[in-house]
Amino acid sequence: SLILESSSRFLPPQGVKLSYGTAGFRADASLLQSTVYRVGILAALRSLKTQSVIGVMITASHNKVSDNGVKIADPNGGMLSQHWEPFADALANAPSPQELIQLINEFVKKEGIQFDGVKHAEILLGRDTRPSGEALLEAAKEGVASIVGAVAMDLGILTTPQLHWMVWARNKGMKASEQDYVEQLSSSFRCLMDLIPSQRSKFDGTNDKLVVDGANGVGGLKLKVLEKLLNGLLIEVRNSSEDGGVLNEGVGADYVQKEKVAPHGFGSSDAGIRCASLDGDADRLVYFTVNPESSGAIDLVDGDKILSLFALFIREQLSILNEREGTKNNHQARLGIVQTAYANGASTNYLKQLGLEINLTPTGVKYLHEKAAEFDIGIYFEANGHGTILFSESFVGWLEATTNELSARSKGSDAEKAALRLLATSRLINQAVGDALSGVLLVEVILQHMGWSIHRWNELYHDLPSRQLKVKVADRTAVITTNAETVVVSPPGLQEAINNETGKYSQGRCFVRPSGTEDVVRVYAEASSQEAADSLANSVAKLVD
Ligand code: 16G
Ligand code: ZN
């Protein structure tokens, strides 16, 4: 068979066991040839099974440049169905071509996959700027080609969210090229700019430039393309892939958020300027300002605060819509907020005070996304800067009908504008996955809409001091949690001990969880002062050890 021929050229490395974790397969790039080839096969089977276009993205996101990884985008543009993850693991670890073929045959039978279905398999392939990506993409192509009739489209260098967006758009029957992505984002951005209330000042004049750290990756490159179409929004990109710096080294959203320092290329001369940082594949976004007093220190505006800004804006539009008079088809939209236990406690309190419904899920995009999809409008964000706003199809349909009705009856009314803003937001913000590029555009237009500087935004609430630690343990799977990772159920007694420590601190909050991407147990602690948060984290780390 085709598979036997090509798989014998992609033998798995010995003694390495890979698992399809929260971020797909990830490892040192030199180990991944056979894994990526096999993910190509997996994607083709997934495409046959779902009779839809499937995506394969080659990236290791914020990890070091020598790493790489591969993950699948499902028909809706989201993560691979969890139900297929065990098969992905088995495929990646099959020791020989014969065993690989046997696994495939069994799985094809079990899933009832038809090779002579109406549609042949179609796979969109993308990669980030890692040098290892080119050869790995070739391996993925060979994997796809080993399935009869399957077609792979090589889209070259993309951000992860662009690839997910294209899969989502293709399966909705929309135009789905990179150019279509750029056009949709830029036109909905301009639409939102045109809807800014005229009495609101467009900034205070002193800081209307945005400076973006591109993590030496793909995001800066693509942002420069977008920027030309934004009608005068000034964006200066630093640390773009073509600038020659090392991907993710001392730069990028993960570094900035975890270390709370300015990325390479930013210094005291940037004090007070609005800055943002993307991660290596541009699916995370944080904002910051450089602190003039101490070198390298920043004021961080993290995912929680981006979520808060989005929630305020959406809530404002919904309440304008609710106040409109005499409409027949009234509809109280359900707005839901989704966070993880890493959300700063001050953000959760703030959102609760606004009267919003808050849901907690375990860490990992697939959990947050799934929860957010239950609402008319669901906003999810991880503190690390990954998140988006999901609009349900039925709500978008209602919005379109309402906009038409309002345009006919009360053109130019506040209600019509609010409806148009929500519609434009649903087109601007990526519906498949968190996207730093669409996120940055939405933040920028909302700040202008509110007439706010980054400082005003950052003052929405004050983060509680927090500390994250990681503990190397013999077996991280020994730690089992429940209630969105806030409670340890095993080993027995550990949660009581954590409660006991936490009780000693004013505003103390602490949880531990096994990492999904590293062989460590993570500790998160929050308290009323930095010293207290540090001390709580340290004593709980000792309990875990
Ligand atoms: C992955 C997740 C991210 C999560 C992080 C946690 C996706 C696409 N990415 O990067 O959402 O925050 O893992 O890592 O799901 P950890 O389990 O090592 O703490
Ligand atoms: Zn990323």
UniProtKB/TrEMBL annotation:
It comes from the Eukaryota. Mg(2+) binds at S61, D279, D281, D283. It is an enzyme of class 5 (isomerase). InterPro entries: A-D-PHexomutase_a/b/a-I, A-D-PHexomutase_a/b/a-I/II/III, A-D-PHexomutase_C, A-D-PHexomutase_C_sf, AMG1_II, AMG1_III, PAGM. Residues 51-83, 118-169 form the Alpha-D-phosphohexomutase alpha/beta/alpha domain. It catalyses: N-acetyl-alpha-D-glucosamine 1-phosphate = N-acetyl-D-glucosamine 6-phosphate. Substrate binds at E382, A383, N384, R513, P514, S515, G516, T517, R522. Signal peptide: none annotated. Belongs to the phosphohexose mutase family. Interconverts GlcNAc-6-P and GlcNAc-1-P. This is Phosphoacetylglucosamine mutase. It comes from Arachis duranensis (Wild peanut).
